[in-house]
Amino acid sequence: MKPALRNGATDGPALSADGLGKHFGERVAFEGVSFEIPYGEVFGFLGPNGAGKTTTVRTLGTLITPTSGSATVAGIPLTPENGIEIRRRIAIMPETPGVYERLSVLENLECFAELYEVTDPKARIESALRAVNLGERARDPCGALSKGLRQRVALARALLGDPEILFLDEPTAGLDPVASRDVHELIAGLGRRGVTIFLTTHRLEEAERLCDRVAILNTSLRTIGRPAELRDALFAKALTVRTVAPLAEPGSVFGGLPGVDGWRRDDGGAYVVAVSDAEVAAPAIARALVGADADVLSIGESRHSLEDVYLELIDEDREMGRR
Amino acid sequence: MNLSRRRVRAIIRKELRSYRRNASIVGAMGIVPLVFVLQPLVAVFAQSSSSSTVLSHRHELLYMLGIPALIPAALAAYAVVGERQQGTLEPVLSTPIRREELLLGKALAVLVPAVGVAYVVFGVFIGLVALFAHRGVASALIRGPDILAQIIFTPLLAAWSIWVGIAISTRASDLRVAQQLSILASLPTIALTTLISLDVIHPTLGLALALGAALLLANRLGWRIVSALFDRERLIVGAKG
Ligand SMILES: Nc1ncnc2c1ncn2[C@@H]1O[C@H](COP(=O)(O)OP(=O)(O)OP(=O)(O)O)[C@@H](O)[C@H]1O
Ligand SMILES: [Mg+2]
Fold this sequence. Notes:
The structure holds two protein chains of two kinds.
Chain A: E1 15-24, E2 27-37, E3 42-46, H1 53-60, E4 68-73, E5 76-77, H2 83-89, E6 90-93, H3 105-115, H4 121-131, H5 147-159, E7 165-169, H6 177-192, E8 196-200, H7 204-210, E9 213-218, E10 220-225, H8 227-234, E11 238-243, H9 250-254, E12 260-265, E13 271-275, H10 278-291, E14 296-301, H11 306-319
Parallel strand pairs in A: 3-8, 3-9, 6-7, 7-8
Antiparallel strand pairs in A: 1-2, 1-4, 4-5, 9-10, 11-13, 11-14, 12-13
Chain B: H1 5-20, H2 23-46, H3 52-56, H4 60-63, H5 66-78, H6 81-86, H7 89-93, H8 99-132, H9 135-141, H10 144-171, H11 175-197, H12 205-229, H13 232-237
The structure holds adenosine-5'-triphosphate (ATP) and magnesium ion.
């Protein structure tokens, strides 16, 4: 059963923000943030250092009060009075693990299982430990664990209360590749079970792989959408053509072909052909190249990654002197 | 307001577990009582039976009420600012816990060992005096009303020190400063119990009742006031010492 169904609150969005903002005195941490996240979505929240990601998580997690705008969390309006009701339905894995160092992994989890008033603490703790692969270290004092292992304790702790919405603030920062992959699988699995996940990360390939949608924050929201949509919106589609020798007259080869908007040569000697429709353009380009007696090495789609989108937007901000 | 006993218990358990494994806390729990036991022991065993009349004006047992007043001060001062410096406050505050539950759990977790240690020390002291001191000295010293006062005032004084210590802890940005302030804040209480034990302030039933009532009230208010002082947001994003 989807955890979200338990409370019958699946009608509206899991999370929504409307013009949400927080400033500390003069300093604006984030502002004008609006979005809606349906139940079961894995939502990526990206942005450079100091963009306001952690502050947004803390605000939505009822730890600090917004200075502007409004929000609902798990269908409940974000107000100070609703703090406890909201916290019952969410869990936050903070940026720093914050485990009790003198207590063992198990004792840490026992404490939090009680704080969440979990019905079957033993079973929940066991499954949380299994989920993060910490079973063998359960009796070790947390003070003796490495950074990455502590992080996994923090993740296990966030799973105890069976949250509807899980806020993960850079969950894989500092994890080794295998542990990161495990966390990715865990997140994907939780997403499939209907847990809404709000994931902040600096690892763009992680966001691209895991997230249904991403938002890029740089004090204010720069963009929001599916990774593929963001790519298409920001970058013109292009094909990359490689030949053994440079073309004698590239202009006459690429000019006037159906679906082709223009071309240029890149630093590596390949031709980057801007196209409006790759399915029409690619065969036409292939025929034209053969017709021109060129030896073709490859014709491929230029792939823009989420990273390209991210860097493009953040660079734009820099040039405009924002932040 | 519905407090969750389960959550309060979870906090108490976690705190007691951490204390047990913290050598400096265990050390402090041992040293403070020594300070307050040494002077009475010397007084008792240096006296001959003839001077029991001198002792009969003193209330050595009440002097030892300094133990429950002082032991909790440093521990309670750790309660909030210590967790904050360790970075463990944010995860706790992300759970459905109410601040009243957190603070009550923290207070009880200090109260239990402080009262326990104080009672054990009193018991040992009374045992030693009864067994080894001159008969006259022993009977002059071990008086029913004093023992009763001892038993009743120990938790009341400890709780008062705890609320003062936690109050300081919620507002302080540095652990050391909090501990020093908290110990400083327990000194007036210790001065009062010392003056009473020296008969400078004459202990009467009326005084006992008045003090008891005042402490009860102060402790009830203490919980409320400390809860009001506990500012979630400042504790999470405010400057750390
Ligand atoms: N308590 C505070 N007082 C003043 N300014 C603050 C406070 N907390 C955060 N800020 C400011 O708010 C902005 C956003 O900080 P935040 O920690 O949310 O960024 P972030 O996106 O999580 O960054 P990172 O990627 O480094 O974790 C920063 O400019 C930061 O300096
Ligand atoms: Mg952050």
